[in-house]
Amino acid sequence: xxxxxxxxxxxxxxxxxxxxxxxxxxxxxxxxxxxxxxxxxxxxxxxxxxxxxxxxxxxxxxxxxxxxxxxxxxxxxxxxxxxxxxxxxxxxxxxxxxxxxxxxxxxxxxxxxxxxxxxxxxxxxxxxxxxxxxxxxxxxxxxxxxxxxxxxxxxxxxxxxxxxxxxxxxxxxxxxxxxxxxxxxxxxxxxxxxxxxxxxxxxxxxxxxxxxxxxxxxxxxxxxxxxxxxxxxxxxxxxxxxxxxxxxxxxxxxxxxxxxxxxxxxxxxxxxxxxxxxxxxxxxxxxxxxxxxxxxxxxxxxxxxxxxxxxxxxxxxxxxxxxxxxxxxxxxxxxxxxxxxxxxxxxxxxxxxxxxxxxxxxxxxxxxxxxxxxxxxxxxxxxxxxxxxxxxxxxxxxxxxxxxxxxxxxxxxxxxxxxxxxxxxxxx
Length: 428
Ligand SMILES: C[S@@+](CC[C@H](N)C(=O)[O-])C[C@H]1O[C@@H](n2cnc3c(N)ncnc32)[C@H](O)[C@@H]1O
Hints:
binds S-adenosylmethionine; globular; single chain; Rossmann fold
């Protein structure tokens, strides 16, 4: 595919249809990016994360707007989908996220170590953990609430064993498996991202405790570790001799984060949090405590999470002002103000680093509050076109399955039918 073919075609197509410049153009990224057939390919499936990008959207932006060795930034990197796609296509990436999880996800998602490793040694490491006698008790006052006593005893020994391992590939693999199992064997509902005890889960665990649950837990630990091992091996076979950089900064507020490098970046590819969805840190709480973070550390990042922190300024654009006039509830106005203040601050902080002609690719939904649809992409467009960016196009990608915070594989999360990929170009 030559540079910009699809993008140009879509622009011409929009023109021929006589659509207004600013009307969304319908696409299905799953269909047009046919080189990716499976959203969970290679290491994409390691670590569960809510509202992950489908890799096809990221690959589309990479194919259309970058070339080898370019630098991509993602201000809301989550589980690092952009980092993995960048590495696979020989681009460099800078990833920022408030969630500390990113720091634990990236070393396994784009494993670049030169150390030889084998399933045999992996099994030996798992057996070491199983023999551990000491316990690791997370610094989280409520942790026992989420477990039966027997399960807690086993998990805290396994985690103690894990924390003693050297920071090598075995540790990264077993850690990913333990994170998964610690949720599965907890009383927290594991079929949805949200952290809560469900009736289903209580019954599930009560029944499990009547069986040989310890054997099942151990089997799952092995099975998941082997599965992740295979994904990492496959990834490494494909990326032999690839040496691009993926830098990641976890636990940072992307609105305030200062990059050390003075280098101009080529593209922003990002998917901001959803309005009224402050669930990312809460969703990861159990994982973070087992990984060794304290209640205080988790609280500190929760406070910075969009959109429940106070707005420092009121963003004014035509559409946003019109929406404000229609909303009567003060609390909702506060959320709206907070969302646009902090999300725009984060985007702007990264977009300021783009070179002239660099593209900003922003993937957002149009959620409803108080029954009013919030055209997020339009508000971003109005704000950034005042700041020296040119509106190029907005794509409307119908949601098939994207696990947000509701029910499993919710076909219509937050009442949204589509998500939008907005493309802006830096003019100055
Ligand atoms: C839609 S998710 C991104 C998912 C990501 N595209 C992926 O594929 O995994 C939005 C992310 O924004 C992060 N976030 C929320 N507030 C933030 C802030 N102030 N600074 C940086 N990241 C923040 C959340 O932790 C969450 O990971």
